Amino acid sequence: MRQVAAEAGVSTRLVQYYFETRDRLLIEALSLRNEHDRKRIEGQLPEGASLQDAIRVMLLGLLPLDAESRQSTLIQLAYGIRAVNDPLLAEHVTDHAKPGLEELVADMLAGAQAAGQLHEGLDLVREAGTLLALSSGMSYDVLMGIRTADDAVALVDYNLQRVFRPVSA
Amino acid sequence: MRQVAAEAGVSTRLVQYYFETRDRLLIEALSLRNEHDRKRIEGQLPEGASLQDAIRVMLLGLLPLDAESRQSTLIQLAYGIRAVNDPLLAEHVTDHAKPGLEELVADMLAGAQAAGQLHEGLDLVREAGTLLALSSGMSYDVLMGIRTADDAVALVDYNLQRVFRPVSA
DNA sequence: TTTAATGTGATACGATCGTATCATAAAAGA
DNA sequence: TCTTTTATGATACGATCGTATCACATTAAA
Questions:
Q1: CB–CB of A136 and B141 under 8 A?
Q2: Measuring CA to CA, how many Å separate B129 from each of A168, B113, B157?
Q3: pLDDT score, position B169
């Protein structure tokens, strides 16, 4: 609380005044960060993006590729651990993820399939789950320096090419 | 330190005696846990396991499917976060992962490919990376209750079937 | 102008924590 | 037997932290 107040250039008392307790402050901060992330990723979507590009942007948005997304990944991890022993916080953490990034990607894949852009014999829901879990799995690796950012991007692209047909030139 | 001593049924002073500092204790504990995990996963390998089964056991071993592996996943996450601001600890954390689970799986895939057990047109190193990142990505989801354990296992199996040919009956 | 909201500053309570110190004792090995 | 290892227990220091309280400003709205 003191550190938050100091960095905000404000009295400790005022932080207490608006947030009451530390737990409330954490929840408010989480929701701000989630909203911020959503806008950041949406902002990376080009105008006439194809479905494949849109999915790619989403997947890369989950990776810690720059300072800002790296911070977001860290925050998500920290909140995740805290949520394990804090049911109230757990709701806020899962509410962000649960509403269905997976269903969203699966729907986008379905659209691409209808347009004949996908290889055949795919289980779209499971492919969506694979792509998302792949990205969040590599997030940890990149954060720890186990894997380079370039390597992670290459692996995302490899899997996109595995699912999408080559674009006809 | 006090809590560790209490749970060990030993005086706080003794914990200090053997580990000197908290940081040393954490590093020792990490290395014990890493060794424990390795043995746990190896112990789940059946005698005459196929390469596919062996890879499957490894992948499932990364998931928090029971109380013990769940604890291991939590510990790994907690150490990971701590390692971000602790270069010394980071070495110990990455040393466990780095030596190349990915290369190990890639080698196993190469063996399966030589035996004609794989589909064609695969990049074995990238498939290995995908499988491993997939599992560790789902670990977080299962831990948070975003995904069920059964769902995670099904997704691992889906990806194994995507790589391996159906076994000839 | 009166009132309510917004803000400051200092100060304190109780709790946790890693670490340090010291005297002392039991057990094991030389 | 002598000495080193292994262990206890109490006690304390300094630091951090979330929270609470109180008096007192400033600003904005009624």
A1: yes
A2: 28, 16, 16
A3: 59
